[in-house]
Amino acid sequence: MKLLFKKVIKRATIFRIREIIEGYHSLAVFEGRYYVTLKDGRIAGCVSLVERGWYMTEIKHLFVKEEYRASGVGRFLLEEALKKVFTPLVCCTVRSDNKRSADLFLKNSFDIMGTFQNSMTDREIFLMVRNLQQKE
Question: Which intervals hold domain N-acetyltransferase (predicted)?
Fold first, then answer.
């Protein structure tokens, strides 16, 4: 099965992505460029990139539908998204109890730069950053 990575353009796809994300994060703020991964013509996951300035891009809403988890879709999404980043730094936030996501970012050279409490959900959050100019 081949995975495809596509920029979201169709209005219907945008609404479907919004439904998927709101299903796990009802307070989500939608911004940036959204990309989807298709597996057998169906949405398997999505990711958004938001340029915060000349120096940093934020990865938001990296999400893999449950039936595609643990199959490499998350890794594929992250690797393809990183190819679209042209700033020296890239960051994301991950709930500390989301071990699968935190491990994915750690395995891809992100560092936990700090933790904080999300005041809306009272959950602990990791701020993760990767310097794309650093040699691995």
Answer: 1-133
What is the residue extent of each domain of the chain? 3-131
Residue 68, number of CB atoms within 10 A of its CB: 18
Please tell me whether residue 131 adopts helix, strand or coil conformation. Answer: strand
Instruction: Give the pLDDT confidence of 63-98 residue by residue, as tens digits.
Output: 898 898 888 999 999 999 999 999 999 999 999 999
Give the tokens for residue 60: 């938001």
Looking at the domain covering 3-131, what would its CATH class be?
alpha beta
DSSP letters spanning 17-55: HHHHHHHH-TT----SEEEEEEETTEEEEEEEEEEEETT
For residue 67, the 8-state DSSP code is G
56, 59, 64, 115 from 47: Cα distances, Å: 16, 7, 9, 22
